[in-house]
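May I ask you to comment on the folded chain given beneath this request?
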Amino acid sequence: MPSWFKEIQTPKIKTRNEVSKIPQGVWVNCSRCREIIHKEDLKKHLFVCVKCNYHFRVSAYQRVEMLLDKNSFQEYDQDLTSPNPLNFEDSMTYEERLQKSEKKTGLKDAIVTGYGTINGGEVLIGAFDFSFMGGSMGLVVGDKIARLFEKAILTKLPVIIISSSGGARMQEGIISLMQMAKTLALLSQFRKAKRPFISVLTDPTTGGVAASFAMRGDIILAEPEALIGFAGPRVIEQTIKQKLPQGFQRAEFLLEHGMIDMIVDRTELKTQLSKLIKML
């Protein structure tokens, strides 16, 4: 057999001994359109997909950074921690769950509160973190919101709360449900100061948070397509034995039915809040 024919049959393939090193965690897939986005680009666009406008969930401190003027934030009550009033335990103790969430988020509980400025306008602000036990409201969350309204009564500053919550915290039982009444009582007192309470609803805002202060804002804003409601759609369908309308409990449906005042993209939220504070 001619030598040239052997070379055609068995071509020499060059192999690489080194595997390409691609940094982990640099790219993110959009949950909706599956676009591959560089993390730094996503951060610059406030964690909103530039292709489909999907709003990623963000942490409480990221919310504060996005909305408040640089170096203006002064945090309140950051060391408050929840007891275990019911000695609750399932697959792990309540204390262990709190420690796990603290390690994950760097927070003591599911909300960050404090003082800051938005384009120079003074505000008191609260921001939920859904990564801390689903943003659930227990004794600490209720206390921090109540204290925020108490400070607002004394200072006569407007209050902004950005909600992202699955509702009341089951590990605290009836005590978590009492926070609904407590926060509403302080909100009612705050109204006498005739300063605005602006409620910003993000994905998701449900359960006891939605059923209390979150839906009692003087102005209620929401991010696009945020899930907002009390019980989940599946539970409602099983209860009423009917199929729910398309988009039920999404921000757009609530705006159409007069439940909220405005849908605002995250990239425009700081500007819109600044305008509302000045007007009110």
